[in-house]
């Protein structure tokens, strides 16, 4: 009879948990729904909108492979994420709504997975370290932590910023892998065989996480944090578990050593990005201490005015006292880390939370030459703060008289977070409103101010001429902030040309000066390409001015050290020589140099082949095409290779006299030719 009552009680509790969690999911959908109507932005454009390989019209293996490896981001190119984008486009079309809706579904699935993982972690904590914690109480804490995570406004960019599906998808697979690990580890704790589950977590979901985004490499580190804080490499009887130790030797220690050896042998894939950054590795490390403090503040006290897509208004730390908050931030981070290790025996859950948070920052908040700060870098890391916080608020064994007060505080917290997320989602429902709002809240953010300038420019171009002055004001302000490179100056030239105003010579001088002196980033190349394309159509920029602009870029001493940017500039320059100057030989030389600088990026060779065909150099084109075929291992360019092969098969196998003008089927712009970025 007692057993039946226990079963009935657990069933009722389970149904209550299910009902409450369903309400939490519904609240998440409501909070995010306005933002689903927003547009694409920033890195969405090169990865999705302007990436024809993602625009699938058939599900052939060649097209799927091409789409999967069409991103230039990351060492592994994130094929799983890119494949989902391509399938998204194929089944639902190009509108951003469907992309954001799929992101929201991934977010909810991750919240469910975190609920399962939270219950596993708390049950392990309960049985090993705190028998006073009841199973029902543990379930409520896990549910609360997942609810807060689902509705926390800091996680919004990983959902409504479409390309950050790379982050959310990698996180979903990471959490699934952690669920399998914790399940298998609990079986080993009880003397059963849990190794297959642990291996499935690290090899199966770990690989999917890694191929979604490189942050998936943190999965074994998260596993280590769970092991170190809760299970402590032992079995139930207190003896060391050799299988677990071997597991971490091969899943964490050996890969870490291998990665360090790889970095030492060829640091370019890891640290080459510093060639176009305005900070050194040490300066970035010092700055990240202040950034992590900012992250913690946004997790604990998120403010609508402090949250933003761009946080490029953070000053670089040039030393421990510049800015002055650098040393206190470093001291705080060190203290927090030491606390995480020191309280493992007295407060395992607190140790788990602190170390979990820092595990999530290892790749993107240390010395790798990434941008300084983005909110989505906390998408899984913030759970390490939220789980112990919810434990403190709901633990029935701690200060029972304050329990109701703590429960009310939790409900109010969830309501406040939901409100901020909803308000932020509404702002993101309109790209123009979002850009202008963020520029007002972050007036020293170069990208925010530049984006607002573009928003006002688009309004003016749509016929709302009252916004012309604001467009000029914001774009000029962005140019003065200068960390956006030539983007605002080029935007000023293009905007003025479109509305029929004269081009200020100062803008051309600013472009030349920045190209000559500042590190040339990928965004700089994109702007240069836009300027060259506009010059062919409407921009009143003379050929002589364009030539001096390219000369300034090639005079940049850092350009040769940025391999892909160097090749991209050569590709744009070659297109200018061909399309504007009728200089086929010069364009051919530029394309050949681009191939020479970046032989492994096949797009440059495709550019050269198209040009050789246009110059009637069919034999040379055939030689290049054969090389392309033999090196296109993933069939990324299979469709283009097939089309070029058919075309060449119908042409003479000989080099003929090259044309003297561009009336011979040559692509009309660098965009048509393409570059490697």
What are its keywords?
30 helices, mainly alpha, 2 domains, 67% helix, 677 residues, Serine Threonine Protein Phosphatase 5, Tetratricopeptide repeat, globular, single chain
Question: How does this structure look, described?
Answer:
The structure is a single chain. With 677 residues, the protein is an all-alpha fold. The protein folds into two domains: 9-424, no CATH class; 487-673, Tetratricopeptide repeat domain (Serine Threonine Protein Phosphatase 5, Tetratricopeptide repeat, Alpha Horseshoe), CATH 1.25.40. Helix content is 67%, strand content 0%. The protein contains 30 helices and no strands. Helix 6 packs across helix 16 and helix 6 packs parallel to helix 17 (403-428). The longest helix has 33 residues, at 96-128. 46% of the residues are buried.
